[in-house]
Amino acid sequence: MAVSYDLSELKNRMQKSITSLREELAGLRTGRASASLLEPVTVEAYGSRMPLNQVATVTVPEPRMLSVQVWDRSMANAVEKAIRDSGLGLNPMGEGQIIRVPLPELNEERRRDLTKVAHNYAEQARVAVRHIRRDGMDILKKAEKDGDMSQDDARVQSDLVQKATDAAVAEIDSVVAAKEQEIMQV
């Protein structure tokens, strides 16, 4: 069975890598409150680990404050502990079913650390795009070797794969540059 070559499928996979990068970057704190900031937090609830959004609602009442409305009052302490232990540098304050999470001002060193994390995410996305490119090139080489595609057609298609790769990497670079500017903005 020959593996079929489909440029649009490769572009689709590259786009998924970029979407994944955007989601990871959304979780990085920039100094403005965002409900997505608490997405990576998991809570010990009902005997298992659950994402925070399955036990509470996160809202942004003020630019530097998150409000977590716990659905089950008995879970309030577990949610508060999970936020505190999440490694995000947050100090929640419980008030019954509502937990207020003030966001501290970011200092210069913390901002630089966050840009390094953003660049690491971007590099992972670039590597993923390059893997997808390699997969496409391997399919083209095999098709040419097996005689399913002429040498000229294979060259034209590999140029298209390279252009798609370059476009995806350029988009990754622009996404991370925008996030870096957002992080460094005081």
Summarize the entry for a quick read:
By secondary structure, the protein is of the alpha+beta class.
Notes on the protein architecture:
The chain has 186 residues and is of the alpha+beta class. It is 54% helix and 16% strand. It is built from four helices and six strands. It has helices spanning 7-26, 76-84, 108-145, 151-184; strands at residues 42-45, 48-51, 56-62, 65-70, 93-95, 98-102. The strands form two sheets. It has a four-stranded antiparallel β-sheet with strand order 3-4-6-5, with helices on one face. Helix 1 packs antiparallel against helix 3 (108-145).
Q: Which outline best applies?
A: elongated
Helix/strand-derived class? alpha+beta
Q: Helical amount among residues, as a percent range?
A: 40-55%
Oligomer: single chain
Rg: 22 Å
Task: Provide the β-strand percentage band.
Answer: 15-25%
Q: Count of helices? A: 4
Largest sheet: 4 strands, antiparallel
Alpha carbon gap, first and last residue: 57 Å
- Average of the residue pLDDT scores: 86
Q: In order across it, which strands form the biggest sheet?
A: 3-4-6-5
Low-pLDDT sequence parts: none
Order of helices and strands: HEEEEHEEHH
